[in-house]
Write a structure and sequence with these properties.
404 residues, alpha/beta, QueA-like, 2 domains, six-stranded antiparallel β-barrel, 11 helices, 17 strands, globular
């Protein structure tokens, strides 16, 4: 049964001055709120290795933010901002970033009503010769609702990934209320970012330094990665009063056979770095269930976890998914998920969560509430009363799962 939840019950007052506009000088000097067994304590992020459970498996999202915001101008001089969301032609991230000469993306276009059929040229106020030689142009193919299909074309034998590096800017969150600056190119990216595709950073990972990662490994904690490309839907608020009416956007993810084996073997706590890692890991359970019941997995629907009771163990689910991967000759399982995690969700995989402090009335706050057994408000009240910094460049929390 789809849960009916009033989003107004997940509201709080976030003063503007509590939103971190810029990162700290050093990543791991951010503050860390630990929530364990209903108790709250304060630390710094560099303390996290000592706070993690022994013999844990720690899972990171190694997606990489792309400079997906591009600025064009019409012949009339009007400026048009184009925000690349997901590939259309070629439809795979790896192929579109290596495309030469032409490609198509689903985009959000600012001032789209002022863009008819004319071809736009990249806005190049500094007359940068390298950018000028690329000659990047954009043509409007179609519009559907809030998104548009845009065809990009350019000169030279260079891939689209390089075009974005030279011509695009990092799409920092709108709530920072500032333009992208030089510092964002480095700091709005995790140290372990690898696979390009996200338009927003998995911000829990922004706190990790090489020193912290080394200390985690020295403690005997094993690390692994998933890759979920974060879409622009992460910025969208819940506009309906009933969460049941909110639509989650699809986000693609990939996991290796090696990680599925580790989850199947079990016997140790799983620490997810970020809500994107949580959604990926929990989606895997339902992919395995479909392998048990249908012989093959499918994409995970938004409300699939809430339709009925699932009696399968994680081991049974992962065994079935491994069987499917082996029969299909897959070393990596690639799919997508629309899963929404709200109070009432039963966690099958994740035991501990590293995450930042999220916006009021957001799906991420609903996930936090579900993870801590509904007790999100004391955590956020404490953080607000004790000067913690909020949102993407803010401080972080280490949450131990607490079931009702």
């Amino acid at each position: 049964m789809i849960p009916h939840i009033r989003i107004e019950d997940y509201d709080y007052i976030l003063p503007d001055e509590r939103i971190a506009r810029y990162p700290l000088k050093r990543r791991d000097e951010s503050r860390l709120l630990e929530y364990r067994d209903g108790e709250i304590s304060e630390h710094h992020f560099y303390d996290i290795p000592s706070l993690l459970p022994e013999n844990a498996l720690m899972v990171f999202n190694d997606t990489k933010v792309v400079p997906a915001r591009l600025h064009f101008c019409r012949p009339t001089g009007a400026h048009i901002e184009i925000f690349c969301l997901e590939p259309v032609e070629p439809a795979e991230y790896s192929r579109i970033f290596s495309a030469v000469g032409r490609c198509r993306w689903k985009c959000i276009v600012g001032n789209v009503k002022r863009w008819k059929s004319d071809i736009l040229s990249l806005y190049n106020p500094g007359n940068d010769t390298e950018i000028q030689d690329i000659g990047l142009q954009a043509g409007l193919v179609s519009r559907t609702g809030e998104t548009s299909i845009v065809e990009f074309s350019w000169s030279g034998d260079i891939p689209f990934s390089r075009v974005l590096e030279l011509c695009g800017s990092v799409p920092i969150p709108p709530y920072l209320n500032r333009e992208t600056e030089t510092i964002d190119k480095e700091r709005y990216q995790t140290l372990y970012a690898h696979y390009s595709g996200s338009v927003a950073a998995p911000t829990a990972g922004l706190h990790f330094t090489e020193e912290v990662l080394d200390a985690i490994r020295r403690k005997g904690i094993e690390t692994a990665t998933v890759c979920l490309h974060v879409g622009a839907g992460t910025f969208l608020p819940v506009k309906s009063s009933d969460v049941a009416e909110h639509t989650m956007h699809r986000e693609p993810f990939a996991v290796t056979r090696e990680l599925v084996c580790k989850l199947r073997d079990g016997g140790r706590p799983v620490v997810a770095v970020g809500t994107t890692s949580v959604r990926t890991l929990e989606s895997l359970y339902f992919a395995g269930v479909e392998c048990i019941e249908k012989g093959h997995p499918g994409e995970i629907g938004q409300w699939e976890p809430y339709g009925r009771e699932y009696g399968y163990t994680l081991k049974e689910s992962m065994d079935a998914l491994l069987g499917y991967m082996d029969s299909a000759g897959l070393d990596t399982y690639i799919t997508g998920t629309r899963i929404i995690i709200v109070p009432g969700y039963r966690f099958r995989v994740v035991d501990v969560l590293v995450t930042n402090f999220h916006q009021p009335q957001s799906t991420l706050l609903l996930l936090i509430s579900a993870f801590v057994g509904g007790g999100w408000r004391p955590i956020y009240d404490y953080a607000l009363e004790h000067g913690f910094r909020f949102l993407s460049y803010g401080d972080s929390s280490l949450l131990y799962r607490r079931d009702r």
